[in-house]
Structure formats: C-alpha cells, structure tokens
Records
---
Amino acid sequence: MSEELHEVRLSVNGVVHELRVPARRLLSDALRHDLGLTGTHVGCEHGVCGACTVLVDRRPMRSCLMFAVSAVGSEITTVEGLTEQDGSPEGRLGPVQQAFAECHGLQCGFCTPGFLTTITAGLRDNPDPSEDEAREMVAGNLCRCTGYVNIVKSVLRASEIARERR
Amino acid sequence: MKPAPFAFVRPQGLQHALEALAADPGAKVLAGGQSLVPLLSMRLAAPTTLVDINALPDLDHVRVDEGGVHVGALARHADVLASDHVRRAQPLVSLALSHVAHPTIRNRGTTVGSIVHADAAAEMPMVLALLGGSVAVASRSGTRTIPAAELYAGPLESTLHHDEIALEATFPVLAPVDGIGFEEIARRHGDYALVGVGAIVRVEAGTIASARLGYLSVSDVPTVVDVTQALAGELSAGSIEAASEVALRQLEPADDLHATAAYRSRLVRVLTARVLRAAYDHALDRARDRIES
Ligand SMILES: Cc1cc2nc3c(=O)[nH]c(=O)nc-3n(C[C@H](O)[C@H](O)[C@H](O)COP(=O)(O)OP(=O)(O)OC[C@H]3O[C@@H](n4cnc5c(N)ncnc54)[C@H](O)[C@@H]3O)c2cc1C
Ligand code: FES
Ligand code: FES
C-alpha cells in the first residue's frame, strides 16, 4: 500500500518550503530529512529531552511532538535561524549562541540547539533573569555533559550581550 | 520509533471535524499532541485517522464569568496559566497548572486535552473533579455537558463517546468563604507526580464548614474525598490524621514502578496535612481581605 502524501507549505526561518510528506512525518524529521536543516537534534523522540525544541510562532515547542502537516500556517525558527544579519555573508552568532561560545556552555553539543532556541524565547519574555530564573528557564532541557553550571552562566551572559547590542 | 501510517484531516469547521470523526471508528482527535504523539511514536496507539482540531475557529478562549472559568479546547496550558482573570477567579487552576510538565510542553498541550485524556497522574483532571466542574462536548447529534463526577471511567478512559469532541471545560469560581491548597511530590522538576493533593476548605465563623481533597497519581482515576466529618470543624494533628485515614481507605494505594504503596501512603499523609493547612489559611486570608476592603 502506498501511503498518501500531503502537500505542505512550511515557513522556516523566513523561507517558505513546499514539501510532500506522509501525515506521520514528525516536524523534527521534516526539518532534518526533507529540508536538510540538521541543526535541530533528535534525542528521545517523546518530548522529554528538549534537543528538538524549535520556535513555533516564537514559542518554544518540541518538534518531535508535532507533525509537519500540523505546522502549516506557523512560522518556525530553528537553531539555524538564530544567527543575526550584520552585513557579512554568514551573519554573526545571536546573543545566546555567542554566550554559549564564551562561557563554555556546551561540550558534545547534542543538546545545544534545544537550549539555544529555548533560551532565545525565554530572554524575550524575561530579558534580565536572576540566576534562579535562568536555571528555571532551562529546566525542561536535558544535558548529559555540562552539569548545567555553564549553561546557566550562558543565559546570564546572553542577557548582557543582548543588552550591549541594543 | 515512528508512528504507524494514518489518514489525516485538518478541518476548518466543527461540523466537518465531527463528520470525519464519525466516519472512521478508528479515528482520534489530535489537539496539542503532547500525550498522543508519544503514544503514536511508541506504537502504543495506532489510530487509522487523525482529526487535527487545531484549525477550528473560536476554541482558544480563556474566559471568566459568574458561571465559572471557561477554557476552550484549543487554549494551551500556557495561555490559561498566564491569565490573571483565571488566577483571581479560581486560583487552584493556576496553582495546579504550574506543576503540569515544563513551559515548552505547556506551550502546545491543551488543558481540555489533558482533562479528556483522563490520566490519573495528571493535575487538571483531578482539579476539575475536585472543583466539581464539567466538560461540554459536541457530536453530530448535538451537544451535552458531562459533569466531572461522571467523566472518568478508568485509567486513561473518559466517558466521551468516540464521535464526540470536547469543546470547553468549565471550572467553578472560588466562593468567597473557600480557600484552596495544592502540593505534589515528583522525582524530578516537571515530571509527573508520585502523589499530588488538592484541597478546598470552606470556613464559616472560624470553623470548617466543609473540606474536600483531590488526589492524583495514587489510584487509577482522579479521586475526590470528602473529609468534612473527619475534621469535625477544626484543624488539629488528630483531625488531620483522621482525614488522612478516610482518604487512604478510599484510595487504597498500590505498588508500582515508581513507588511502593507504603511510600505513597506516607506521601498522602504528609501532603494531606500541608494542603489542609494551606487551604484553611487561604480561606482565613481571604476573609481578612474582605473585612479590610
Ligand atoms: C515530557 C512531558 C511531560 C508531561 N508532564 C505532564 C505533567 O506533569 N502533568 C500533566 O498533567 N501532563 C503532562 N504532560 C502531558 C500534557 O499535559 C498534555 O498536554 C496533555 O496531557 C494532553 O493535551 P494535548 O492537547 O497535548 O492532547 P493530545 O495529545 O492531542 O490528545 C490526548 C488525548 O485526548 C484526546 N483529545 C484531546 N483533545 C480532545 C478534544 N478536544 N476532544 C476529544 N478528544 C480530545 C486525543 O484524542 C487523545 O486521545 C506531559 C507531556 C510531556 C510530553
Ligand atoms: S527529541 Fe524531542 S524532546 Fe527529545
Ligand atoms: S553538551 Fe553534551 S549533552 Fe549537552
């Protein structure tokens, strides 16, 4: 039996893509396999680890718990979309990415895309978090390497960088 | 793992959604997907059709009136939690919601979806039962209202019919003489609780006129226990112990992977004491605020 395919228009990082996918295609797989945006990582595939977190209409959501066919009409931001335009061809790292680089906020990097998207949205809601609030901001994401200390530092540093750039 | 194949529709109107649901006995509603998609990916469920209700109009409301707090089927946990109107009208809803998963899950998961998913380990089914709320549901033959007391049939089983879509949950507003409390213990922040307890206590002229407790994660359905008689009008070490005994008789905690029955019973006692005191103090605080204003 051949599976029915659906035409889906996905808007990712400001670019509209047309794809034909079965209904059961997870958004995480559509991003990675159909669009080649492998920055989004897949760990547990049941909502627990947070590696696959993307922004859907600016809110962080688990891309492994959404189907691509349910994402039509939404604007999706992946880790690839966190880079800022500064006139150079590659752009420059966004404040959260820059802070992770400065504070050693990653080791293997598997969890990092989910942290970066989550923190980007978190700092939009709370631009100047306390250390406790920074910790709370990342409480839904798992990291097996860093022990979180440098990730919490990165949140605080990102808030400074965003302020400096404003 | 990946979900098994299914047919998919994303109707723009309720009638169309109800027809699609009725057309396939293997069809299921897809709301936020935060419970359903993991079940599909683990192949614990394999519906033949998914009816995605996320494009239906006019279902994302969070409204408060004298009839209660009304939460539409597409209102996300995060929307309900963010509402100051809800917090003022029925603080137990907001308090319990802050314990539901993590913010990222709350951004997508719906409160109504959680209620009809009927997980005994979930917060909101218990809150609806404790407060005596209801759910409005629609099918092709019309609408009906299911009181919370008739909503839970068994583990992960609500009394909704296969062809019905839940449109709205209603939580009664907190009466001026009532106070509430909520506590839970989970192994990790944001996880499902090992035991959770909610309380609603009515204080009239300094004595307890009524007290009800709601338990999650102890038995296989959300359980409400009336402890008014056990308390005999006041809170003391003895009366709280009596209330815990009444609750435990009704709950009959069992061993499972996450905790032994003995440990769960201990948590029931500890949390019952905490929420009764919190709800009593809350009722007194509200009475004081009324006198001052
Ligand atoms: C990592 C993780 C942690 C979590 N932790 C918690 C927690 O601590 N506490 C907690 O309570 N929940 C928790 N959840 C579950 C979460 O609250 C879900 O959002 C909720 O249980 C279901 O809502 P939904 O909108 O996602 O429903 P879905 O997953 O879309 O649907 C769930 C079920 O309800 C049915 N359904 C949904 N909406 C309707 C409707 N309007 N009419 C008829 N049927 C409907 C579906 O057919 C399905 O059977 C967690 C989830 C994850 C992934
Ligand atoms: S892969 Fe989505 S939460 Fe783990
Ligand atoms: S850096 Fe390795 S899992 Fe977080």
---
Amino acid sequence: MNSRESILQAIRKLPREKKNLPELPDFGKNSDLLAEFCQSITRNAGEVLSLEDFQEWMKEKNFKKVISLVPDYASLSTQAMPEDPHALDSLDLAIVEAPFGVAENGAMWLDETSLCHRVLPFIAEHLVIVLRSAHLFPTLHQAYAQLQDASTGFGVFIAGPSKTADIEQSLVIGAQGAKSLWVVLVD
Amino acid sequence: MNHPQAAAAFLKDQARASWHDETLWYVRDKRDAASKRLPEWEDLRTLASDIKEHTLSQLDYYLEKFEEKAFENGIQVYWAKDAAEHNQIVLQILQSKECKALVKSKSILTEECHLNPFLEKNGIAVVDSDLGERIVQFLNQPPSHIVLPAIHLKKKEIAELFHEKLGTEKGNEDPKYLTDAARIHLREKFLSAKVAITGVNFGIAETGEFVVCTNEGNADMGVHLADVHIACMGIEKIIPRRKDLGVFLRLLARSATGQSITTYSSHFRSPRKGKEIHLILVDNGRTAQLSRSNYRSSLKCIRCGACMNTCPIYRRSGGFSYGSTVPGPIGSILSPGLDVKKYSTLPFASTLCGSCTDVCPVKINIHEQLYAWRQEITQAQGWSGKELSIKLAKGIFTSPLAYRVSGKILRAALKSLPHSLIYHPLNAWGKGRDLPQPPASTFSEWYQKNRL
Ligand code: SF4
C-alpha cells in the first residue's frame, strides 16, 4: 500500500462522531470604516497619504527607478516592466492598485492579474498601494465573501511594510520585503 | 531528555531568565489587548474550534478533495507517512532539478522532520530566510519558540555572531543595523535560489489553494524568484472553505503577537507560467494522534505560540528545556504522542493553571490533556519520585467538579503563597520573578457567566 492509501486508511478506520461545519455569521458593523482603516495602517507602521500629499511626496523623494501599474499614474514610471523578475531587485518604488481594503486590520488585497510579476510588491524597496476610500470592508469576513469566486493563481493581503522583531523583540521596519508602505486614498 | 534538569540549566543565568520571562509576558499582554478589541473574540474561538473539529472528523474526505483541487490547479501533490519519506521526497525533487542550494522560510514541520541536516548530508545548502531562523541556524541551534525562534538570545550575542558571519562592525548591537545586514545577505540568497521551500499555515479543500503568513516577506521573496516552490504541510492544516480563512486569520496573528494580521497573507493556487509548485502532505504521527481520543483535539493547533507566551513554566525554563520541536504546553501534548518514553517529563512541566487553555484560539483543552498524559505516564512508570504530587493530583482530579474547585483553590493559593515558597531553590521555574497575577476567573467560570 502506498503512503497515500495508508494515511487515508488509517483515518478511515477510526471511529468517528459526526460534527457539523458551522455557518459563519457576517460580523459586519457600521463603524467609520475609513477612520478605522487609517488607524490600522498606522498601527502596522504604514502611512496613509492623500492624493496631494502623494504628489508632493513623489517630488520630494525623486526616486530613480519607479514602476507604476496604476493607469492613472502610469506617467510616474521611469522604466518598463522587465521580463525577468530578478531584474526588479534594484527597483526603488512600485505603485499598484488594490481593489479593496479591510478596516479592522489594514489588509489590502492584491492579485497577480494586477502585479505582472508576483514578486513586485515584495522586492521593491518601497511600495505604494492606491485604494479607493469607498472600497473598504469592515472585517476579513466581508473580504472573503468578495473573493469567493476569485480564482487567480496568486493573491496576497498586504497590511504594512515588511518587519521583524526577531532581535530582542525590538520592532524593525524593513526586513526582507518592502521597507515602507504608503497607502494613497483616492475618491 | 529531562525537563527539570534542562530548566535548571536555563535558570543559572538569572538575568537572562527574567528577561525571557518578562518579554514573553509582554507579548502575552499584547495578545490580550488585541483580543479585547474584538467583541466577537469568543465567538471566533468557538467557530475556529468547531471548524477544526468538523474537519478532523472527516479528514480523509477533505484531504482527498484538497488533493483533487490542487491537482486541477497544476500543483503536484505527494503523501509522506513519516519524516524520512518527507525528506526523501524533497531530496528527489531537488535532485531532479540538480539543485545544490535553496532558501527556506519558516516551517515547523521541516524542523520536526529534521530536513536541514538531512539535506546538508546530501550536499545541499539550506538557507533559512526568516531572520530569527537564520540567526539560530548560524548557531547550529533549533528555534526555541515556534513564532519567535531566537527569543532566547540577547542582541549582544547576535551582534557578535553577525560580526563573525556577515562582517558587521564589532560591537554594533543596533537591531536596525543588524537587520539591514541580514537583509543584504538574504537578498543575495533569494536572487540566486532556484528552489524555495515554505511551510503551510492553511490548506483549503474547496479551492486547493494554501496560505502562508509572514511579517518579513521572506516566504514570498523566496518562492516568487525561484523556479520551484516546495510546500510542506501537515495533514491537520486543512480547512474546508476559503471563507473559513476569515475566522482563522483574524485569530492567528492576534493570538501570536497581538498584531491584527500578519503583514503578508499569501494565497497560492497555481504555479507561475512555466514554474512548479510541489506540495507534500505529511502524516508523521498525526493519524496516530487522531486515534487517541484524549489527545485528538491537539491537532486543531494553528501554531500561534500563545500557550507558550502565557505559560509560567515555558517563560521560566526556555524553549530548549523541552527538547522537542514544538515546546511549551502544546508541545508537551504532541511530543509524547511521538515518543512517550523520551518525552515523559514534559506533561509534568506545567502548573495545570489552565492559562494555556484560556488563550488558545482554537480552544484546545491543553491543561486537561497534560493531566491525562500524566495519568498515563504515571501508570506506565509506577510510583516514582513524582509520587507525592501525583497523589495530590489524583485526589484533586477525581471528578470534573472537584477539578474546578481545585482550580479556584490553586488560584487563591497563588495569590497568598509566601515568596519564600515560590522562590524556594527547589522550585526551578519560580526563581527570578514574581508569578503573574492569577486570573480572576477561569475560562469555564467566565463562560458559564457569559454564554447567555
Ligand atoms: S495549542 Fe492553541 S495556543 Fe498553543 S500554539 Fe496551538 S493554537 Fe496556539
């Protein structure tokens, strides 16, 4: 008997008590989603920018290598998307758009259809996520209801910049992924 | 291994031991604050527990469904009955790719299978890419905590280590500086690795996808740059539906570190064009644990680490004192299932205070299972040096009612026990720091009061 069969057999021969799979309540609430979302992002060590602040910030930073995948801000790109994702290593800034965010924890959904390379939001030194302020759900439950039929090969919730506390529990922002996260809220 | 002896060794360095204790208590505090921000916290725990109980009651069905869906998505699925078979499968994949070096993100399962030494013996270099894991890997140590792998180390030691291994300035102990050095070092590894290994936090039967959670972004950096992604998954990691992730992701990070979610929650459904995902489903003692009715529910564990952070023994004895891959209260239930002789002292490394059970996001009755192991082990060993405490326990634990009452007495005693007793030199783990405030009510009292 191969291992697959022997594992399944071992499970099948156990006496079992049927236990029901619970239905999930919605847990939605009518709080101020925008305020809660901004608070969550700040708590996760990300930053929230208005559109004006963002334009100001771009001028000030003057990044050399930028790729923007947001049609409205396509002109901010300084280079084309490389064929090989390894070539993104020196990228200063990636600008992408999230279809929605989650107020309770600041998580924003990105999937590969809008990323070109899966590694883009991780490998860029800094990350900007553009989000419509009306596209917010209170909790992950509503977010997963939205995602029920999505079937892309890769998707990720990103809730802040990459971080670690592995050295004496001191929080350090900028571990292996993007060193900063900026959320640009648009109408 | 012998827990009391190992704990005593850990406590020799009193300053470090009390730092360890306080730091984990601080993480536990953050967990409390995060859980209190959610009015539905207790409902989520109940749902999580019920979903896992249901899944375990039909594990064969969900595993087959998961396999079928994953296969449709273009993922290659393997089954391993034990650690040796798991390691062999990994090796075969690597050999077929002529791979000599790989990056690996946090996976407790691969620690359990001792994959790293096995691969190294076979001429393959493994780089652990989580910062804490890289640190302990440099030291040839296993992680001492499942979420905080290097929690037993001080920054001075890490600075010395990085000076030697990565050429950082001598004496520079700034965590930011050291993290940056590791970032540069690991970036190079990510860019050159052809194969990346990850663990799996959740496998979803409905869709055949799996989810990996990290804060550092190391899992994603590895797999999205490599040609081949190998995901190693214990068979108990299955959940039925995608929407169940809402329940589990809301609980996991809050319980682990007090964050509302990890920075990255990555959902893998199919490989990139022209690339490969291989997923290994591993038993290694899990079906045996499933057959033990007393301990079956330990398989609900989502490896958040909360029971370690809250445990007065873990905090005062350190992860290494358990001598098992998963330390702390849950490890003391899982490890005897793998080798009861070797781990016979672990179920005794507990005050049975029940704090682990109170914080567990999937409501495993951890302290009751520890007690059940004690009974089995004591019966198997006959009366031993533990005679007195067991007799006491036997008297106390003859019925559930007596047990609840005794919990109250114990909590009252914790409040009033003289310092001289708690910090008696024979009480290894009581040394070094005050005991925490005992909880005002147990979870069962709380539940009785609040369930309507
Ligand atoms: S037993 Fe519960 S508290 Fe402990 S690690 Fe597992 S899920 Fe977390």
